Amino acid sequence: MPAAPELISPRSPRVSAARRLARRNFRGKDRLFLAEGPQAVREAAVYGKETLVELFATLDAAERYADIVGEARAAGARVHLADEDVIADISTTVTPQGLVGICRFLDTPFEDILRARPRLVAVLANVRDPGNAGTVLRCADAAGAEAVVLTDASVDLYNPKAVRASVGSLFHLPVAVGVPVEEAVAGLKGIGVRIVAADGAGPDDLDDELDKGTMGGPTAWVFGNEAWGLPEETRALTDAVVRVPIHGKAESLNLATAAAVCLYASARAQRASGGCRSVTES
Questions:
Q1: pTM, whole model, 2 decimals?
Q2: What is the mean pLDDT of residues 60-67?
Q3: Model confidence at 282, in pLDDT bands (50, 70, 90)?
Q4: DSSP single-letter state for residue 281
Q5: Pairing mode, if any, of strands 240-243 and 204-205?
Q6: Is residue 74 helix, strand or coil?
Q7: DSSP 3-state assignment of 93?
Q8: How far apart are CA 98 and CA 89, in angstroms?
Q9: Which of 240, 232, 158 shows the shortest CA–CA distance to 205?
Q10: Under 8 Å between Cβ of 117 and 191
Q11: What pLDDT does residue 229 have?
């Protein structure tokens, strides 16, 4: 390991190229995004498909996370030891953790998701907050969902805040982006998936749905905008509009919390006696 960082100036061409990925238009042009911190970098390194292209690390981080740096090199990534000011210049966080990776886009065509016949899906319709989008993706991963779909009106999957909020889950399950909500619903219905809208004012109660046994089959949950929920035209596309019951005095649940409750409810129902964890082949 060299005694001093090789990159010490924020004006370095390599640093400038990395820094511009904080902006959506450059991410789209280069089809590259930033993954910050040890968890995200490790997941990128082990994901395969040469996803991790470059890694910038401070000397301290390279020593502390020597195993991750080794995995990055083994994955074919170029590793740059950088001054802390350089990392701070590239990073989009207030307190950088010393590791910033550059990764290739890894979203999955919606047709490939349908071909895999997923049993539990989260559809983000017009979700604009990147933190919420990343957190829902993390919840979907934890609940065992097999795909996430971001509609064309939703936030950029590769927004740095969304990537951080996913805490590595972005690398764990297929995610389709830019899919019109009508196309997403029609495609999933076409392979036998029940479409359920999550809405705090929905006529159907989640507890009642679980008691009736309607949640055991392949299900796609549609989650709407944080501020105004789902428009009527989107609700009309679904098979049911379900609310999470509020048993206490809270006014409502935020999007990510409601998504976690809904996805786990489906996961449990699908695993219960008589539940279905596969789409019937046509």
A1: 0.90
A2: 95
A3: very low
A4: P
A5: parallel
A6: helix
A7: coil
A8: 11
A9: 240
A10: yes
A11: 84
